[in-house]
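Field reference: sequence -> structure
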Amino acid sequence: MSSETDARSAVHPWIEAAPAPVERRLYAVTPRLAEVLRVVTLTPRMVRVTLGGDFSELLGCAPTDHVKIFFPPEGEELPVMPQVGPNGLIPPPPGTPRSFRDYTVRRVDRAHGEIDVDMVLHAGGLGSAWAAAAAPGMKVGVLGPRGSEIVDSSLDWLVLAGDETALPAIGRWLAELPAGVSVRAVIEVADAGEQQSLRSSADVDVRWLHRDGIPAGDSTLLADALAGFELEFPTGRGFVWVAGEATSLKPIRRMLRNHPALDAACVDVDGYWRRGVVNHDHHGADE
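Structure field:
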């Protein structure tokens, strides 16, 4: 055991003895053609698209599960369906536009063959433009999830934080958590009009942060809020999950990874997107 773990265990003895809080599973991916069934405006900048298709055997069971959605080329009704090989998605030929984006699965209803996907509306962007015009009957391709990160359901507490891109995962997390779990959620959005009603059986404390004119990705609201809590985590076993713009998460990642009361296995900071980068790979190594 390292001296760093010694120091942390002296403050919180449960750290050394507790099992890893996250189980990671990988799945074989199956392309599916899906049809838009419903479109609901959640806020001025977010819509919920319900897709119907062959989802009865959709793999995945975690709030952060996500799929790649393949959009039709301009002027076409059907998407170019992804091709899958033994190592997963086969990249298109060089120079071919990447007509897909990653989205969190907000809800799964396998009995009715449906999934919900919440999409952020913003200036420009393939997915945003499609979402702004989405209507029943439109078709997309769906690939994934390729894996799940399953957080131990017996944890005593969670801290969930992020911007709009993390909100679908946070919303699903809260909806699926059982009673008795203590949750602190910190959510950064454009303004008060972007707040949503989030239902949960858990003991939830939600704090909304409003950029109020600050461009997405330029704000330090999340970092300031988390630092302002002084991260005095409750006793018992817990987990901290943060997602948003990759560059803005760097100070948060350093702060959490270096905190004496948190083991690295109890922290997941995920850059869901990066300013100026199309299809940012959030599976890449931490900065």
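Note: DSSP finds six helices and 16 strands in the chain.
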